[in-house]
Design brief:
OB fold (Dihydrolipoamide Acetyltransferase, E2P)
């Protein structure tokens, strides 16, 4: 069975590797004008200046031989270094570039296939992953299988909602299955992720459990369709990561991280994080968080259970304080006592929907 990691979707080359690229030499006068300090990390943008690609840093054009290896609008991070030869800017590989490379580096040119098209045109449906990774569904099924290694694997993938940390979220993204093939290629050993876990369960499930087998296959399809979506976003210079945070003490949280295309002239684009989960005490919850370049956050919460919005409102001062601890400012918090509206993408074109927001 061909997965999206085996398909060539676009001829766009992977991002330029930073290893081996010469540093940018900066005179002491220019360094002083730019306010550069040792070990400082700064970001430059490649821009077209009359047909010549220049590195632009703080609105100042810098000559850099490696500029021609990039495209207008691409952003590169540099670390300021000093030596006996003067100041220089050393290009570094940012986490964002690493993740994008993870998508691009696993695409040998095998052409299209029916498998690819089935994932591209997978109909919109309720998340089978969300259902399957609920504690009341997953753990009884694993216990029924009686496979000790499957139980151990589940223990590595499931976190605790009561003790959630940034590391749990980070591991949730790495364990999502979106990057499994890349990590296998880079490290030579497969990191356990949700797609491999599901395939393990599929392998040991009895053939007479047709419904469970169908659900496992659908869950794998769901992950691989998200891989395809991530690749499509990459080709448009956008970001789109769909993944699930599973817990042993709570229902899973569906996460979607997205960012629009960034071409440089518009400045930093907003990052949007969408969360969705369902709890026994608070009902169904949807949260949209918009992180702006100025480290300002805007949030919208939808809750369908009466009283949940009141609880959120009373806890909002504590949220503001916690965000301040991370250097973030909550500038706007909207709490809505309703289900999040869903608009069919077919109806989102010009003239189809009237914006009545005030």
């Amino acid at each position: 069975m061909l997965g999206p990691e085996q398909l060539n979707i676009s001829s766009r080359p992977p991002p330029v590797p930073m290893e081996g690229i010469a540093s940018v030499r900066v005179s002491e006068q220019a360094a002083k004008a730019l306010g550069l300090k040792d070990n400082q990390v700064v970001r430059g943008v490649i821009e077209d200046r009359g047909g010549i690609l220049k590195l632009v840093l703080n609105n100042r054009d810098l000559d850099w031989d490696a500029s021609k290896r990039f495209k207008p609008g691409e952003r590169i991070d540099f670390r300021v270094e000093s030596s006996i030869y003067g100041r220089s800017l050393k290009p570094i590989l940012t986490p964002e570039v690493k993740v994008v490379s993870a998508f691009s580096a696993v695409l040998p040119a095998l052409g299209s296939s029916p498998r690819l098209f089935s994932l591209l045109y997978r109909p919109v449906q309720a998340s089978i992953m969300n259902h399957f990774f609920r504690p009341q569904t997953l753990m009884p099924f694993i216990n029924q299988l009686g496979a000790a290694d499957a139980k151990t694997a589940a223990g590595h993938l499931l976190g605790s909602m009561q003790r959630i940390t940034p590391d749990i979220v980070r591991n949730g993204l790495l364990n999502s299955g979106l990057f499994g093939e890349f990590l296998l290629m880079q490290q030579g050993a497969a990191r356990l992720d949700m797609k491999q876990f599901l395939r393990k369960l599929l392998k040991i499930t009895s053939p007479n459990q047709a419904r469970t087998i169908s659900e496992l296959i659908q869950a794998i399809d769901e992950i691989e369709s998200h891989q395809i979506e991530g690749l499509q976003a990459q080709q448009s210079r956008e970001v789109s990561y769909h993944f699930l945070l599973p817990f042993f003490d709570a229902n899973p949280v569906a996460v979607h991280i997205e960012r629009e295309a960034n071409y440089g002239e518009e400045g930093e684009m907003d990052w949007v994080i969408n969360l969705h989960t369902e709890t026994n005490s608070l009902g169904e919850l949807w949260l949209k968080t918009t992180l702006k370049a100025s480290e300002v956050i805007e949030m919208i919460l939808w809750a369908d259970q009466p009283g949940t919005v009141d609880i959120a409102r009373s806890a909002s001062p504590n949220l503001v304080d916690q965000l301040k601890g991370y250097g973030l400012e909550l500038s706007k918090l909207t709490l809505l006592d309703a289900r999040r509206p869903i608009i069919d993408p077919k109806l989102s074109g010009p003239g189809q929907v009237v914006d009545v927001r005030t």
